[in-house]
């Protein structure tokens, strides 16, 4: 008998002896329900998953093939089915996380309706989604364990050996996995960041991703108009997040510091430098400036003494300051090193394309000062993956002197190239991208931010195209249900997935033979 299950039985037996009127309570049934609900609070989850992430980070440091992955989920059911699939095909949820994307919260979860990724959605929608995801993941645990306990009861009634079933219960691999949760730029000042972080942790988040953009002008990392903040401001946000973790007892909490500096060309303010070469001074060095004299300076100009000269920082009509061209990579490196020096655990660098060599170039520079630097990398749907890898292969072949006359470099997305040598090579590069980036460019965690936004749109599009057309009901029967049956997808029995079997067993536990159960002979789910 499993240790946890037996301990729960012993506990309930003691409680029954203590409370003499609890005789209707079955020790085994109560222990079963206790075993099926391992996590009592979101904080329990945050502490448990933080340890998983820390262990994974250590294993990656020792072996870069041990990288981790996640898919973005915009609903608890999506996260649940992701973990169901991972366990079905690979037997474990190990090295698999869930990513909570601020973009998808804005686009799909805001009470305002669909919004762009500009931190306009309600900040409370983020912890609400975290809690929802863990509700669905915990329900997945309860459902699968309930099936095991059904097996156990049947084996006991038949007088069969139950050791294998008890081992499955004892060694159960939970669907509850770490969430990396996007707090955007913190939704306000450092106090606002601290308060929201606490809610996110209390909902179950063990890893908080924060970016170095201005909160009130935040943009999606793959759009124009990004405005970064001085390092001192960003460090305050990192501090606020760490204090929230410590206050709530999540000692292993993980902070992911994201820099948008590669694509950002603007800053909102000039920090105060106290001595040459300090952090503020290094930030100021990146700002575009014009040498002036007092005589030719304009009225109300903002002027600085910089490197012994009087200069005017270039300021746009909206009041923002502009960085010098070609400083973006230097700014990325300084951002990352500074974040790691000031409490961040992992880095996130937004890049314009998925290019291992480009990522490696930046990470190598960071590792000169922070040898254990590791990335969380956004395998973004904003990249045209097919086009990017076809371009990379063409560039590689061009360098090798290969004949490229069969390809039009201005039309590489053409379906005419599907199935060609170019297509095969580019697809192989895409297949190996995560392995290569983990090995060569320090990427510990690979995520796709918005995959289930796109898969939902695609699957609904395909169903609607067939169902409202000539295929009618065949579109669903062949395009959805038959595939579910052939693949053995548990969700084909949607009543059970929603908790019907679990509820029936609870009714029987609570009411005995008086229970009115839904899973009888007339349940149409028996067709499956």
Automatic annotation (TrEMBL):
The gene is aceA. One of its GO terms (biological process) is carboxylic acid metabolic process. InterPro entries: ICL/PEPM (IPR039556), Isocitrate_lyase (IPR006254), Pyrv/PenolPyrv_kinase-like_dom (IPR015813), Pyrv_kinase-like_dom_sf (IPR040442). Keywords: Lyase, Magnesium, Metal-binding. Pfam families: ICL (PF00463). GO terms for molecular function: isocitrate lyase activity; metal ion binding. Its cofactor is Mg(2+). Coiled coil: none annotated. This is Isocitrate lyase. Mg(2+) binds at residue 182. It catalyses: D-threo-isocitrate = glyoxylate + succinate. Can also use Mn(2+) ion. The keyword Zinc-finger does not apply. It comes from Psychrobacter arcticus (strain DSM 17307 / VKM B-2377 / 273-4). The active site is at 220 (proton acceptor).
